[in-house]
User: Fold these one by one.
Assistant:
Number 1:
Amino acid sequence: MLYYNIIILGVYMKSRKEKWQVAILEILKTSEKPMSAYDILGELRNDNPRIAPPTIYRTLSDLVEKGRAHRLESLNAYIACKNHKHDESAVITICEDCGAVHEYVATDVLKALSNVIAHSGFATLRHVIELQGVCENCGFEQISV
């Protein structure tokens, strides 16, 4: 009987975990701007008043690990992954004027970085490449490099 209850609990926990992943991913996909964990918590609390921050952080961590979301280190915020090639590294551009965020695939950049550190004895765990500047809509031509 105990074994059966553990199996049922495991299925329940997995389905609950998947429920949060789907809900949070949907929020990220429909958001026009990167969202912090507390922004997401605020969205979910309307229908789930008992949800707590650790649930959000665990779920976001799982989504990032699976390549379904990106954590923007400089903003301490998250966006949904728009590229379905999850084994590729993304380059994220962030406009400092309007906050627009775009994702690009950059395999050559990752290869170049890997070559730079290949003999350093350093092992990368994840790749986060963020570029901050001004987008075309905000007048990028005014910026000189």
Note: The longest helix spans residues 2-30.
Number 2:
Amino acid sequence: MAIHIIPVNKLSAKALQGVIEEFISRSGTDYGAMEADPETKFRQVRAKLKSGSAVLVFDDETETTNIFLSDDPVLKKLDAGPRQSNNKKS
């Protein structure tokens, strides 16, 4: 299994929008006390990705993307193999 962190600046604006929209549409991704509207969630996730406090991850095996906070312990477990990809453009 190969996991790659995809730099968000390597994605087109449309591709990034699609990834974020798909992520926020999943159930269970909102852990706040109050439910935020989709546009607010979108802006929050995009801001975290752009600032580097969240990262976009692609899994070759499942061909899926996910978004993690940069300090998420799950990312530390993935250090067993190459994760960074700088040549991905959608």
Note: DSSP finds three helices and three strands in the chain.
Number 3:
Amino acid sequence: MLRKSTVRSPYFEMTKPKKTIKNPKNSTKKTIPKKFKPAFNNVPTVVDLEKAEIKYFPLSAEDRKEFISSKTNRTITEFEYKVYEICKQIPEGHFSTYKAMSDYLKSGPRAVGNALRKNPFAPFPIPCHRVLTSNMFIGGYDGDMKSKIFWKKALLEKEGLKFDEKGYVQEGMEDRLIKDFSL
């Protein structure tokens, strides 16, 4: 007997079974899905992107100490604020990498990625969607490597970046890489 899967994929949904076959040994019926089809229900549209909320970013040291992140329900660390400050320096239509940011901060790319994953100011005023992996792959977005990548890709394409079918920045766009920061 086949059981219905409880796992839902953001990429594929099973269509209703179209065929049943008999198992010749014991004559029990098994249902076979006829096909799988992409279910891009969560793909943002231009209209969705234009509704992106601009969030309050505390500027003073006093405001930063009192600010509670809506994502983590805790205060934001000094390191996380540094990551957000240099991320703000990446202009629209450009990108940086976790490694370039971590080199500037003298930390590790994962530390930068973790800070950006917790970013309560995304996508604006802290454009963490503009940070890619060092091999210029789109990487994750909002702590997710699957369904939310559509948002990241849509935001970057709206800003003028182009990607190949595998999710890498297209050749000729390398000049948009930002490596120089200041605090």
Note: Residues 1-21, 27-47 have pLDDT under 50 and may be disordered.
